[in-house]
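Session log. Operator J.P. requested a structure for one protein chain; no other inputs attached. Running the standard single-chain path with token output.
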Amino acid sequence: MFLMAQSKTEVTETFLQSFANAFNAHDVKLIMSHMTNDCIFEASAGPDLNGEKFIGQDQVRKAFENVFETFVDAHWGNTRHFVFANRGLSEWVFTGTKTDGTKVEVTGCDLFTFKDGKIFIKNSYRKNRIPKN
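Structure written below.
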């Protein structure tokens, strides 16, 4: 049986809200301060089974910067956070406007794995709305 070592610093729901606040402020430096140096971001879309995967501070930072370039008014509202030892979950409603003017409003969640009091893995999921005819 594989047991993961417990983090010496526990992550709290307040920490996850701080992370969400950093996203809503589009503050990439603050966002990245919540993540480990060897962090992993698994995007909700991409060519692979788990979406596109970004590894390490540089790749993850660039991925988040691209989100803010694509959705200049990106916002994650109605957040709810849950922490279970070294795992966590945040639920949210994402709203944003693409550069082509398309409006997006979807529910989603992030599944987290924590290490040393920070986010090691951020695995993102969101609904894919299809316009009604």
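Operator note: Helices lie at 13-24, 28-33, 56-70.
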